[in-house]
Predict the structure of Oligopeptidase B.
Amino acid sequence: MSVFKDLPNPPVAPKKPRSDTRHGITRTDDYAWLRADNWQAMFKDPSILDPEIRKHLEAENAYMNAAMEDTKPLQKTLFAEMRGRIKEDDSSIPMKDGPFAYGTFFVTGGEQPRYFRIPRDADIKDESQRTVLLDGDKEAEGKAYFRLAGIDHSTDHDRGIWGYDDKGSEFYTLKVRDLKTGEDLPDLIENTGGGGAWAPDGKSFFYSALDENHRPSKVFHHIIGTPQSEDRLVYEEEDAGFFMGVGGSLLDDFIFIDIHDHETSEYLLIPTGDLTAKPKLVAAREEGIEYTLTEGGDVFYILTNDGEAKDFKIVEAPVDNPGKENWREVVPHKPGTLIISHMAYARHLLWLERKDGLPQIMIRDRATGEEHAIGFAEEAYSLGLQGAAEYDSDVIRFSYSSMTTPSQLYDYNMVTRERTLLKTQEVPSGHNIDDYVTRRVFAPGWDGVEVPVTLLYRKDTRLDGSAPCLLYGYGAYGVTIPASFNTNCLSLVDRGFVYAIAHIRGGKDRGFAWYEDGKMEKKTNTFKDFIAAADYLNQQKFTSYANIIAEGGSAGGMLMGAISNMAPEKFAGVIAAVPFVDVLNTMLDDTLPLTPPEWPEWGNPIDSREEYDQIAAYSPYDNVEAKPYPPILALSGLTDPRVTYWEPTKWVAKLRDKSTGGAPVLLKTNMDAGHGGASGRFQRLEEVAFEYAFAVKVAGKM
């Protein structure tokens, strides 16, 4: 029997057919009208949204509220539980940099972080030593949405660049703050990517500007005290298929311009000794060749897949001539061991690598070549490498957690190999590790591969198929979903759920080949792996098909749309957050912010008939059919530049028109936010509580 009863009639989006012909194939889209013609301007001013579209979105929200009305007490309970696990007045351990140490803290009831510094050797527990540099709650006053991009101090510690987005559209405004007085200077830089890179003298900085299609296409040099209109154009990227960022080095010797898509990269260097110099190329872009670099004194250490190093290697090159002809291998490629990132300090080279799905930190003495590893023994865990803010340091910082173990922050001396536990994540409402079990199991894939699945459940959960399960997946861009501590999911686990993460192809969980096996023409492996995980959990009686609620967001929302089409009978419900479901139409629209840069990930259906056919074969919106779908909850943000609001809106309209099973299809559009949802920490918890309430309701556990 359906858990959704006495619902009002759902909104019915009018059909206004529009046809499009590509490669001799004509497709008709009944709901294309939901894409606002003025979407670029609307992202900056949501009030100008077409009234008919707004009316439809509001009707969808009203229907969603009616369907979820009976969960409101549960949502409040879930929210209270999640909030109770957060130390509201939490503070970071400040990182030493020059005469100060920099960190963040929250106040009880506060939604936004506050950035502070203390004298370098001050007692971090002495709050009277803190100087608040930026109060996020104060800056957010009166705004429905507000997200900080942080604050970056100048080399002389006198000024800071800080950025904010108050629409959810990810167009950030930069301001410059006098860190001695706390006052902002008149400088105002609009339409940026959210940060800047200081010149060493603290009198100017570099930043990337976004064009009207939200692409970071230009790098500018801004001199403090001058208007943005006078900023000098340093570099312009003509290829719309590439992202671009700008940053600095620990030694302040260079400004880095990083140009990349999902499989090709290029770096340009500006020596800080001559800020007007023409950017110098490191190695010209070659399709399929990636590299990132970090400064190591007189050499650059470069992480690259060049030379068929699929899982990456590290080379070094002289700073004064870093071209590829001078690259010399220092950490060789080891198939199956993926090097994720690297850092260099005065006496040590270190890198984070992953083998068999588990991470470890490797450290090499630059003088002797001696290496050692930092690793842990749990079946599944997560490591985060923060490094140090100073180049001349023997001490780095890293974090460790698992699905059962709260996050632990360590300082690590690379010479003595001593770990100093700085902080253990507090769970104010209590957390007993011994009440829970975390496991790493392997589901047989359709083609013989083993798909890792991380599980978390209470020790007293009955594993006889009766337990509900939230099965989470992503599977794109090489992103690995870590097996880290998550206080929110305990609200499900404590209600008898098995919480599962499927580490499917499209991520790099099992090396770079794992990623390649889930992109382009092999994209359907991602979807089949997720279904294989559901099959295994059902067969092994961790849960059953009738109890599995699938969840994924963004590209993971595409996954949700695909598995809903491919195997709707294997899922009791589906939660699709900001779901990328209209893949073919989006990849055919080269005016959208992410379309050209994403062609290497999905394919270019404009130029290639073959890639058109590949995408058309799985694109969730294009493959909705007359069949019984499970209850589906889609979540969207009006000003989302990554997955535009009309994608889930069109998908829901089509599902509702086609589905034969009578299960509700719900759409919740946040009219004040974008891709990341609500910006405040407790506002975000309200959204998670809503999603989990849907899962609990669908599972019949209210």
Summary: Residues 88-133 form one domain. The longest strand covers residues 184-198.
